[in-house]
Description:
Blueprint: E1 5-7, H1 16-22, H2 32-49, E2 55-58, H3 62-73, E3 79-84, H4 87-98, E4 102-107, H5 116-123, E5 129-135, E6 137-138, E7 143-144, H6 147-157, E8 161-165, H7 177-180, E9 184-188, E10 200-204, H8 206-215, H9 224-232, H10 242-258, H11 261-281, E11 297-301, H12 308-319, E12 321-325, E13 334-338, H13 345-361, H14 370-386
Parallel strand pairs: 1-12, 3-4, 3-5, 5-8, 8-9
Antiparallel strand pairs: 2-10, 6-7, 9-10, 11-13, 12-13
Helix pairs in contact: 1-10, 2-10, 5-6, 11-13, 11-14, 12-13, 13-14
The protein binds pyridoxal-5'-phosphate.
Residues 10, 61-63, 88, 135, 139, 165, 167-168, 188, 191, 197 line the site of pyridoxal-5'-phosphate.
Amino acid sequence: xxxxxxxxxxxxxxxxxxxxxxxxxxxxxxxxxxxxxxxxxxxxxxxxxxxxxxxxxxxxxxxxxxxxxxxxxxxxxxxxxxxxxxxxxxxxxxxxxxxxxxxxxxxxxxxxxxxxxxxxxxxxxxxxxxxxxxxxxxxxxxxxxxxxxxxxxxxxxxxxxxxxxxxxxxxxxxxxxxxxxxxxxxxxxxxxxxxxxxxxxxxxxxxxxxxxxxxxxxxxxxxxxxxxxxxxxxxxxxxxxxxxxxxxxxxxxxxxxxxxxxxxxxxxxxxxxxxxxxxxxxxxxxxxxxxxxxxxxxxxxxxxxxxxxxxxxxxxxxxxxxxxxxxxxxxxxxxxxxxxxxxxxxxxxxxxxxxxxxxxxxxxxxxxxxxxxxxxxxxxxxxxxxxxxx
Length: 390
Ligand SMILES: *Cc1c(COP(=O)(O)O)cnc(C)c1O
């Protein structure tokens, strides 16, 4: 009966408006109505990516779009760099290795970001790099890589394409694809984009299109050239996830109603700061530094003296509060507080209050209300910055 409070890094809660949009009657993907829906919606997604390029849609999870980025832009045997700072960077490495690429792995400890200087040093001895792959927002550790700076390094120190996995970023963090010089930017529907799983979105720069055209990839379903050809007609090569595209149109409404993507990403910043301040007030450690902390997900270390699995199961059973655990070697050591997509400061206050209730149940030593108060202070000060106080 009580609703589950889903504070995960995807799938995430779906706004009612989006659910209703997805409940519309089916239309043919070769109809005029579809072409209108597709064209109008893709135009409205462009500012979310920060691009003037076409947005392409795959009826798939984010992984297929990452795979598409790999198979279309590089060929087996070529040298590439993958920057990996966590589980999803390692995922990118696996895709590239599977395709027979020669992978140079720039690996960081989990919880750290890759800095400009590290990439400069890493690229120095390498002369024939075709692409640099990186995770924008590392969902396993809650860090955000400095993509703007890394993009500039790639441009200044190589001829490589810069290919970015922003599956858990786009919609919740700012992205300026064209201005920063990203060549392929990929996201998925079920993270910060407020949709169910099943739709991947990507955009490709002019530089990358030239490489893709010359490359003549053998991919069929994931062939980006055919998606581009069909996009010119306002369609996709095969049957797309029509209902999710109807939902995406409603997502664009919501973001526009909030005042545009800059306002949406600002809200994510506020929520990030609320969570971090609350944990500090509760003397619970965070995995990452403030400097590279993700606006969409926060990795939190196990509160001292608690068994993490027991605590998380208790929060879910007693308070319906559902957090995600740690991945890989961080399992049992951290949990992940998702604050992406359809999530607001009021939701953060609720989750922290229930977290505190759970801490009291386990006799964790803290001042009750300290976390809520710290989060509330951040929220109120963000409101004061925005609106005049009378
Ligand atoms: C979730 C996620 C993926 C994988 O997306 P799927 O939709 O599960 O295929 C890839 N990269 C990042 C950063 C993610 O958060």
